[in-house]
Amino acid sequence: MINEMIQQHTFDQEQTPAMLQLETGTASHTAFCFAMAVNRHHQIQFAVLGGNDSTLKSFRAAISMGTRHLYFGEGQKEELYYALGKKMNVISTGQFEFINTQTTNRKKAIIVFSKEIEEKYIVAIDEAPEMQVRDFLMAPPYGLPILEEWAKPIYEEMLTRNLLQPLEVYFDKNEFSSLSIAQVVLKEEDCKEFLSEMIRSGKCQFPQEGTGEKINEINDLNEYLLEYSPVMLDKVTKLDEPLHQPMKDQALSHFDTYQRPLFPVQAHVATGAAKALQVQKGIIIQGEMSSGKSAIMTATVDGYFHLTGQKGYRTCVFVPPTLTEKWAKEEIRHLIPDAEVHLIKRTEDLIRIHQSWIQAGRPKPEKPTFFVISFTTMRGDSIKQMPLPYKKIALSKKSEEEVQRYYKNGYYCPDCGAKLRKKTSSIMVHQANGEQKEVCQYKDFTGSDLDSKTNKNSVCADCNSNIWSPKVKTKYASFKEWTKYENKLVQAIKEGNKPLQKQLELENRVKPYDAKQSGRAYRKVATVEYIRRKMKHFFDALICDEVHELKSETAQGTALGSLAKVCKKVVAGTGTLFGGRASDVFYTLWRLFPQKMVKSGFEYSSLMDWNETYGNIERTYYHDGEVVSNVASRGAQGMLDKTKVVPGISPYVFTQFLMDTTINVRLKDVWPNPVELINVPTILVDMSEEQKQAYEHMKESFEKAIEAAKGTPDVGKLWLSYIRTGNAYPDNMNRYPNYYLDRNEKNVVWSNSEYRFNEDCMQPKEKKLQEILHTEISEGRPTIIYVSDTGSTVKERDIQPRLQKVAEQVSGAKVAILRTNTVTPPKRSEWLKEQVKNGVNVIICSQELVKVGLDLLATPTLVFYQLSFSLFTLNQAARRHWRIGQTNQCRTFYLGYRETFQAQMAQLIAQKNKASEAMNGDATSDGLNAMLGDTGDLQTLLIQNIKSGNQLKGSTEEWTKAASEESKRVLANIGNVITPVFESIEIQFTNWVEKLPGTMDVAFMKDAKFVQKAVEFIQQGKVPGVQVKKRELEIDGEVEGIIRTLTTLNTDKRMLVQKQDIAFWDEVIVEVDTAKKKGKRKSKVIEGQFEFDLFA
């Protein structure tokens, strides 16, 4: 039937049009059919239908639900309707998509296509089908590189091999010049071999523009990229012209008005981001630590509203708790000093401001206004409770001898009525027809499963509705009691009884909250919930710092999605967008750029589909029969962990989702003349003989227990504990707790009581630490010692008091410990500065406390006494001292025991750091391993190496690639007393004067007598902003203020009169208003401008 209609060139749309008829049993609907494609089972795959609104809605509903009562044929016009003559029955099954459109004569129409069309078919409308095949094979999951001239031979070869199966397609020649649809049956695993065969056979040939000899000269990918990157960049630029090109376009002049001007690179990045916000909703700034992300994000928002001509705007600043004070007091005001900044510590603060704004008549902002809110404040909500009762309803009464049957027995969803259950496993099964089917195992919730709210029990597995409610104290014991009050109040209002109404309202206001709830039951609402409900159009923009911390499906991650929805523009910042897996950006992209995700065919719940497309999946497959027997023999537990997401990211993530939404910033671009960063090669220390015996005893105990536990669920737990103990035990052999397999402490795996050491005896690693501190203190360099074991979970594992005792034995050491409860997170940066100012030169703390947002400018030396299992934490903590504004050489030391897990950890970190460069923009040959998945979490990699018995090859010095001469010098000087060579204060003062701009006539300040007097005043503390500290001249004050003070204090004032009257200095002040001197004897950043401490 359809072949006959295909052969007909066109139809008389007025008398005999092609039509599709729907029979519902009670009514018949007929629509014009301008195109139709069915498979061999007569199932609709594609159609274009025209008609009135009601007719199209009927077809849309019927096709969506599935129907077998569709008839395709040629219509015959009757007096009032069209009657189908010869017709063919077609059916609709599966999922369909619909697009509203119109015909060439502007009549309403819809395009109908199945989900399979998007995934398995090529559709060529008014174009050559071979070009559609080329585009299809170049996209994921195939990703083949196909030249344009290869399209036709590949298309013909696929038809010949039956790898491309065309559908029977009818289309109206009046509406379409051509239309072809074909199913691609080429398998992903065979696509590369297919293209290789086409090239080998000569059917696909490369352009004859060269001899190909250059390929033989390329040894590795790095060499290739270095040589041909300009050519590739030129081609990419032609294909996708950037919105802002720093080599051609100027940065916004508006940024020059800032109190603290941006660096040139920062200004260009902010300009490009601001222009991007004009054409899209959001942008992500991915910058290395200390590249100035905070300043760039602030300038981006301000620059965007400057481009739109809007002087006043409101911005929500969503940041980690440790950064709230810094954002509110420094980051914003350093750029925009007249901005209005609100630090929101509680939801009540924001409600009060919002209500005041409403009462004032909702005025528009007259200047930039920022609301700084932490992650914890934004997500902090009332405690949740399970309100659903356990239902046990008998189906019928039975005698005691009979088994009782129940209609309901468990917890049931109040929305859909389904029994509440949790998914215990999920596997993909190959069916007989070759398709894959997901088989899930569920387990009914018990009372213990619902003791507290978790991600697994928060929603109904069937309808996805929330099943938890707030646990709060209320004024009324029940809704029935509330309705009694409500009825009285409504009656008083209807009767106009004002006195009674006021009395009832007053009684309600003073009525105490009922305390029937046990335990904590605070009445509070999450800030994001109030914003989502009450402040939908209040904020003009959202700034989200450290967005990588919101990548998961957590409360604060969900808060980001809600904020992005109610804010008009979004600017997010992070130093590490990827953590090694494609899933790291799935929820972030959904929350910030949902349109992209929808357009790419992903749903919010399709994380596994995302990982399959852009990541690496390790999956075990079962055939139908094996699944049944497996469940029967081993139960539901045998079905667990059959699907695993492993590290690896497809480059397509960048090209399809990040190229137009992310700007990458490197520190070396922003900070052109950084101080030297010395990564001293890892120092491995030999254990004492007593330590070796204790360590071998620990290893033997764990390995014996692991061997005995093979084939049981305990083996994984034992391996994890073995790795953690082997890494931490050498640093705490006296107090490290015994390890038990169960909580009852009955089944002891390893006991530490057999080996004890003299507390006063210094261990080798502790001695090496003392040597490092001895040298650093002699040079006047404050030092931070990083540890991992702080006793937060097990008190006996805390090594900080021991290290404090070790460090205090070094001459001149003054030691402090920074704990979680020492000071609140927003005040940690100030606390550290204050400690150094008070003479503390050794600070011991966990890496976790300083990994985000803290600038350790005051402590230029870092010592990793213990290494974290988190590469992200380790790398973040390792750069805290190397920041813009640092004037001292930065040194980083790493310590470990040789022939222990610590040594293997150091080597693994060295290897993983190479790979991680690919994620941060500096991709090398090794770095591409991260893209391919040749990387994992450190614990897993360490376990794999120990299991295999392989010795890690290479030296830990690979961490720094090649130790510099300076790092070798620092390594050789460990333990030596370094006597710094200082210039006299007079010479330092004269050098500072000479660096002042030539526009300032300050030659008289170089006079010997003036210098002598000036130094005396400085040493007496009479010159604010200038001090002598450890024989170094520190100038932190404003230039104009220092000059005023010195010239006023100097007794020989005739020098000033001879040169210029006092009005001259007013001119100087205006001329160098932005030239504020910070730090110690710094070099200029830009000609005519002083360097400044951008993130002090």
Automatic annotation (TrEMBL):
<protein>
    <submittedName>
        <fullName>DEAD/DEAH box helicase</fullName>
    </submittedName>
</protein>
<dbReference type="GO" id="GO:0006281">
    <property type="term" value="P:DNA repair"/>
</dbReference>
<keyword id="KW-0547">Nucleotide-binding</keyword>
<dbReference type="InterPro" id="IPR014001">
    <property type="entry name" value="Helicase_ATP-bd"/>
</dbReference>
<dbReference type="InterPro" id="IPR027417">
    <property type="entry name" value="P-loop_NTPase"/>
</dbReference>
<dbReference type="GO" id="GO:0031297">
    <property type="term" value="P:replication fork processing"/>
</dbReference>
<keyword id="KW-0378">Hydrolase</keyword>
<dbReference type="GO" id="GO:0004386">
    <property type="term" value="F:helicase activity"/>
</dbReference>
<keyword id="KW-0067">ATP-binding</keyword>
<dbReference type="InterPro" id="IPR001650">
    <property type="entry name" value="Helicase_C-like"/>
</dbReference>
<keyword id="KW-0347">Helicase</keyword>
<feature type="domain" description="Helicase C-terminal">
    <location>
        <begin position="768"/>
        <end position="936"/>
    </location>
</feature>
<dbReference type="GO" id="GO:0016787">
    <property type="term" value="F:hydrolase activity"/>
</dbReference>
